[in-house]
Every structure is written in C-alpha cells, then in structure tokens.
Amino acid sequence: MTQKQTGAVRTKHVWVLNHYARGPSESGGTRHFHLAQKLVPLGWVATVFTASVNRDDIRQTVARNEGYRDEQIEGVSFRRIRTPAYQGNGIGRIKNMLAYFGRMLLPRYTRGIPDPEVVVGSSVHPFAAVAAALLARRHRVPFVFEVRDLWPQTLIEMGRLREGSAVTWLMRRLELWLYRSADRIVVLLPKAVEYIAPLGIPEDRVNWIPNGVDLTLYSRNRPPRGPSCQPFTFMYFGAHGQANGLETLIEAMGILKRRGRADAVQLRMIGGGGLKPTLIEMSQQLGLSNISFESRVEKREIPNLAAQADAFVITVRALPGLYRYGISMNKLFDYLAAGRPIVISLSAANNPVAEAGAGLTAEPDDPVSLADAMEKLVALPAEERSAMGESARKYVSENHRFEVLAKRFADILDDVVAERSRESRALGPRFWR
C-alpha cells in the first residue's frame, strides 16, 4: 500500500537553533517548545539546539566534561550546548554567544541527530542565525530565518548603537546576508516586511508567525474576584530590563499614591533583569509599600500565578522608529489567555489589547497617562472588566493558539522542501556533485 492509501505521514526532521529556547519547567521563552509539540501531527519532528546558560537564569546546566546534554522535554528533543556562564550585558554575554555559534559549527555537537531537511535559525542574536545558515549549506537543505528582533535597528533605536559606526555597518552587512541566504523569512512583528522588502527581499518570502500561547494551560483559571475584594491587584510578569519601560510604571504608582489610591491598588512585579535593583530603589524612594518585587517563575507556573491578578499592566517604551513595525511579546499573550483586563502603555503599529477589546491604552513613557488608565480600569463596573477578560480569551483563541501557528509554520517548511526538490530536479544531478 502507498503512503497515501495508508494515510501515513512521512516524518521530516527540522533543526531549530535558538540560543535561549527553554521548556515549560524553566524561565524563558518556550515558543519553539510549543511549536515543536504541535508540529509532530503535521509530519515534522524538531530538535531544538539551545545554550546551557540562559540569560534569564545563569545556572550552568551542562557539565564541563559533557560538551552538550540531550533532553526529552514532554516529547520535544532539546540539545543543550555548553556555553560559558555570564552576568549582565558585557563581554561575558558576547563570549557566551560566540561559544554557541562556534560549537554549533563543529560536527561533534550535532552528531547523533537525524540529518535535517530544513534548518531554522532564530535571531535572538545574529550569530545563532548565521550558524543555522551555514549548517543548512553544509547539509544542502533550505534555511529558514526567524526574525525576532530587527538587528541592528533595535540597538540603534535604543541608543546602544550609532548609525554610521563601523559596528553598525558590519551588522547591516550581516543582516542583509542572512535575508538573502534564507529560503523563507519568518517574522514575529506584523509589519516587519515593510523593513525587509526595501532591502531588495521579495515580499512573498516573508511570512508572519507571531508569538502564541498554549490555551489549554489556562482552562482552569479561577474567575475574576468580586468588586468588594481589596486591594485591586495589578500584575506584571516578565523581564525587568531597559527595553521594558518599567520606570514609567513605578512613577505611575507614585502618582496613584499621591491621589490617595495607595490602599486601593497594589502592584506585583514578577521576574528578573538588570534593571530590577534600580526599580526597587525607585519604589523605596517614593515610599511605595504597595509594590511587591518577586522572583522569576517557571513558565508552567504562570497560568496559576496569572489567575491571582485582577488586571495586568504592560509598558512599552516610546520608540517610534522601531515599533512602527509592531510588537509580539510573549507575556502579552499570556495576559490575554488569562482572561483579565489589561492596561498597556504603547504606541505601535499594532495593539493586540485594543484589537481584542481587552483593556485600556495609555501613552508610552507617560506616567500620568498610565496612572489615569489604571485608575479608570479600577473604577469600571466588575461586569465590564469581566467582559474585557472574555474578549481577551476569544481574541487569543482565534489568533494565537500554537495549534494555528504550528500549521502555518509546517506549511512553510513543506513549501521550502518542495521548492528545493523542484530546483534540484531542474538543475540535474551535477548540481549536487
């Protein structure tokens, strides 16, 4: 019997290079874990190559004498490549990135893994994507470039790089080489094609697959608290870094205190990052006893944690040159899935909170506007806040479930394999000699 007659799906293998990929029992990004799980019924098996040290958790997970460690995490194959531990954003982090890049190119670090039919490189930093492109060439298979951040544009907009500098020039050459080398480009930002196409890249090679959520993890959340429960609890969980604009949130809480709302509103800030000590100091200077700073948690703990919130708050810095291409933050989809209203401080090409009817929007980098929005949300009738939460769940279910996103991803993988097969047949066997 043929494969078509039996209904069997031929399994194909994809390598995913994501320096910071993590499973649900860790803190950090789980995008590729969830996508890999959902790819299996679609005929694809993924191996995720990640680093042994996570920027969110610097504990070493691979012994010095191992080189790498293989793990099966709920059916998904991870290979952790040993990289040196580091703290902060200095030279130690660069050495960590380069160690991952260099070791991924050594055959001993990929041995024992089935040969890929596609290699995916995720630009959590450019070196990971470069390694993926070179591995794809070595194995003569398609390369899919996943663009998470627009390097170096993100660093320029944040003031970490100067336009016209030698480093910027080199990064732009590297960026263009990656775009040209890719058989397909997967972008997380909805308008990223407007940045990429002017570089001479055909628009039909650029595909949008945003971040998502495993909605089944949120199926047993407790309902919102009643209007008599005090204080009203806002929650933020995620990175505490310079890119997150959290100083604005602390200042907004100070404004609410001056308005006499300190006893009625509390803020729980959960996570870690380089700016956390500064935020704690700001809070103390403002005398804000209604803010609690809590440690980062495992990804699988987030649904139960989120159920303890009355609302969420998220701040995005005013970087119009960058956010004109949109946003796609992991934590935002967790907020939506939790079924609570959201206050977002944002000016960007897209606004999932507004699109979903899931909350209120404040101006970015404007603590007064943010305080106004938070105060307005608290004053709304409980029924109206509950309706916002229901709209949030509906929106994320229709647009950001990993089952939906994985199908789009699998279609891209199937397409690039089919295209490469047609090209090889057209060129003949000499092409591969």
Describe this protein's structure:
The protein has 433 residues and is of the alpha/beta class. The protein folds into 2 domains: 3-212 and 401-432, Glycogen Phosphorylase B (Rossmann fold, 3-Layer(aba) Sandwich), CATH 3.40.50.2000; 215-399, Rossmann fold. The protein has 16 helices and 14 strands. It has helices at residues 3-6, 31-39, 91-104, 126-139, 153-157, 166-181, 193-196, 246-258, 276-285, 302-306, 320-323, 330-337, 352-356, 367-379, 382-399, 402-427; strands at 12-17, 44-51, 68-73, 76-81, 118-122, 143-147, 184-187, 206-208, 232-237, 265-270, 291-294, 311-315, 342-345, 359-362. An 8-stranded mixed sheet has the order 3-4-2-1-5-6-7-8, with helices on both faces. The chain has a 6-stranded parallel sheet with strand order 11-10-9-12-13-14, with helices on both faces. Strand 1 (12-17), helix 2 (31-39) and strand 2 form a beta-alpha-beta unit. Helix 12 packs across helix 15.
